[in-house]
Write a structure and sequence with these properties.
There is one protein chain. It is built from ten helices and ten strands. By secondary structure, the chain is of the alpha/beta class. The strands form two sheets. Strands 6-2-1-7-8-10-9 form a seven-stranded mixed beta sheet. A three-stranded antiparallel beta sheet has the order 3-5-4. Strand 9 and strand 10 form a beta hairpin. Helix 1 packs parallel to helix 3 and helix 2 runs antiparallel to helix 4. The chain binds S-adenosylmethionine. S-adenosylmethionine binds next to loops.
Length: about 270
């Protein structure tokens, strides 16, 4: 008789979850259980593990699996004003510098996930535009994942997602809904165009861009893909345009000569002439 495996129990799932929480320091309880299960199943398929307990055993014996598992679990993770220092620089230095050069600017938020990044930029721009009626801007926000992009376009955020915002920001830029969630007001939505786009396609969805934010996306790319991405950004930017990366990301050796460092710690670069 063929051997049949005992199906997973709730305990098997909980044991795996606890191991992930302790080892990767990812709070699984912050996510919906379905989301965690879907991500785990994709890693279980890739490593040929049939059950949660098999996968737990495999994980303990193969620490190299921790990295792809972390990436699978955090694939769409984002937040408003992720890394405060970077957004402070965007607000106080990058945007004022760009508006000194021209009255209308174009921004590309590449790999925007559920929209917190472009909506953060839109809040900064909207505040600047309130005090200076001569300036205007357009943000093009793109992602490969059309499901997450539809969520971004709807602009509806849970109360938990709003924790990074202060009362004044919430009041000015969001409407509270009957179910306790918050919807971005029309003046923010009007600043952003959401579009599906694959960053590996090699063709930018927009050109003559003044500022590109592509943050916490390249962890899924190999070195060659990262270099092509930097070349694509270089071709999409205006001379002197800014490229803002995630804090743990870096420019490859081959593409370093295309940019000069504006701020090495916050990973902000400028397209060379
Ligand atoms: C961790 S989120 C980062 C969101 C935001 N940029 C931030 O820093 O908070 C990574 C996003 O990159 C997107 N992504 C991954 N590979 C991509 C690709 N080849 N083209 C476009 N988007 C991609 C994923 O769908 C995901 O929404």
């Amino acid at each position: 008789m063929p051997e049949t495996k005992a199906p997973d129990t709730k305990d098997d799932f909980n044991l795996l979850k606890r191991y992930i929480e302790q080892t990767l320091k990812i709070q699984c309880s912050n996510y919906k259980e379905d989301y965690i299960k879907r991500r785990l199943l994709s890693r279980m398929r890739s490593t040929n593990q049939a059950t949660y307990s098999d996968y737990l055993y495999y994980l303990k014996g193969h620490p190299v699996e921790l990295d792809p598992l972390r990436n699978a679990l955090t694939i769409n993770v984002t937040e408003f004003f992720r890394d405060t220092e970077v957004y402070n620089l965007i607000r106080t230095a990058l945007l004022p510098e760009l508006f000194r050069q021209r009255k209308r600017i174009l921004i590309w938020s590449a790999g925007c996930s559920s929209g917190e990044e472009p909506y953060s930029l839109a809040m900064i721009l909207s505040d600047m535009m309130m005090t200076n009626k001569e300036i205007s801007a357009q943000i093009v926000a793109t992602d490969l994942d059309e499901v997450i992009l539809a969520k971004a376009k709807a602009g509806i955020f849970s109360e938990k997602a709003m924790q990074k915002l202060n009362e004044a920001q919430i009041r000015r830029h969001f409407n509270k809904m009957a179910d306790g969630s918050f919807e971005a007001k029309q003046h923010l939505k009007d600043l952003i165009r959401f579009r599906p786009h694959d960053l590996m396609s090699g063709v930018p969805p927009v050109r003559h861009v003044d500022l590109i934010t592509c943050r916490n996306v390249t962890i899924y790319f190999n070195e060659k893909q990262k270099d092509s991405l930097a070349r694509m950004f270089h071709s999409a930017l205006v001379p002197g345009g800014f490229y803002v990366m995630g804090k743990t990301e870096y420019l490859g050796r081959e593409v370093e000569p295309l940019f000069s460092a504006y701020n090495n710690i916050q990973k902000i670069f400028i397209k060379k002439q």
